Amino acid sequence: MRVILVGPPGSGKTALAALIGKDFGLPVLTVAEVLANCAQKERALSAQVAQYLKAGQCVPDGLVLLAMNERLAGADVAEGFVLEGYPLNAGQAEELERFLAQRGQHVDIVIHLKVDSDVLMERLVGQARCDNCGMQYNLYVNPPMVEGVCDNCGARIIQRPGDYEETISNRLRIFAGLIGPLLQYYKVYGRLIDIDGGDEPKAVYRRLKPELKRVSVEASEPRAPSPSEEKAADLAARSGGKTASKVKKSPAPKRVAAKKKVAKAAAKKKAAKKVAKKRSVSKVAETITGTKSRPAVAKKSPKAAKPKAKAGRKATKKAGTATRKKKASKKASPKKPASVAHKKAPTAKAKKKTLKNA
Q1: Domains contained in the chain, number
Q2: Would 96 be classed as within a structural domain?
Q3: Is residue 210 part of a domain?
Q4: Residues 58, 174: contact at Cβ < 8 Å?
Q5: Per-block average pLDDT, block size 10, for the chain (358 residues)?
Q6: Angle between helices 44-55 and 61-72 (to 10 degrees)
């Protein structure tokens, strides 16, 4: 079972994480502990983390991500863990989800501790600790028996400076701005539960334990990957993740075939609409002009039409020459006299009459 505890400073995450880890046998991981252990190693990443820690500066998200991924790849957290105070924003949550998906894992439950702001101020401003043995106190909840003196070793108790209240207010405002998108990210996939953290950690754990037992049983059973895990696996595969193939994906060949079939039918329907539209336009044109549209005749290539054009020009030239010759011959021949031209041949009766007269 993989548990994430989310809550503002002073909400009791540390105490609740210790109770969950002890009861379910899970290692508890915190960002501060992971970064401190990483800084002690002799590597390039460790040197960069140590540089920020020594200067008292915030470690960049990129280095935090590398250090956390290295820790989460350990063999002792393969079966589960309790992660306290990480991720801090939606971007870190997405990176964590992608890393776990590459290893065939997932976050089972995200617990959001809701505490009133006045209670948070009381818890945080009243914090104190022993300068010698490190025992923790709260001046409002569990103060020492003698003011300023440790009950355990009798040493001096160190209290917060007077302006610490303003610092706490700024921290709470920053956390409120970051927590909204983070909670929404886990709420979308149904892994987020809200619980009142205003009580003592043991009372909070008693209310939370039945839900943790249910999640623990579900985590031990095989299940299909969620959409977020499939998405993370796809992103990892595109970015060159070598272990992305370990994530089991639900087979969906039927869905793919159905989508292709629907797309094909839609394309056919669209083509048929285009053809029908063209036909309707041509019919309207015929009605307006009163003529039928003739099928387009394929134009012949100019090379094929060239010999015929030459033959046509030769025939026209010959016809023109013959016409000119005929006209010239008519002009050259002499005209016959009109009397001769119109004189008729003598008939048989005329011949008989001529003989009689003779």
Answers
A1: 1
A2: yes
A3: yes
A4: no
A5: 90 90 92 87 83 82 88 90 89 90 90 89 83 82 85 84 73 85 88 89 91 87 58 54 38 50 73 73 57 50 49 60 64 50 54 61
A6: 130
**In this structure, is residue 267 part of a structural domain?**
no
Backbone angles phi, psi at 150, to 5 degrees: -70, 135
208-232 in b/e burial notation, b at 16+ Cβ within 10 A? beeebeebbeebeeeeebbebbbeb
The pLDDT tens digits for 125-144 are 888 888 888 888 888 778 88
Give the separation between CA 89 and CA 176, rounded to whole angstroms. 11
Q: What distance, in Å, lies between the first and last C-alpha atoms of the chain?
A: 160
Q: Report d(CA 151, CA 145) in Å as an integer.
A: 7
> Does the residue 62 lie in any domain?
no
Q: What CATH number is given to the structural domain containing 19?
A: 3.40.50.300
Site of tokens 């140590």: 50
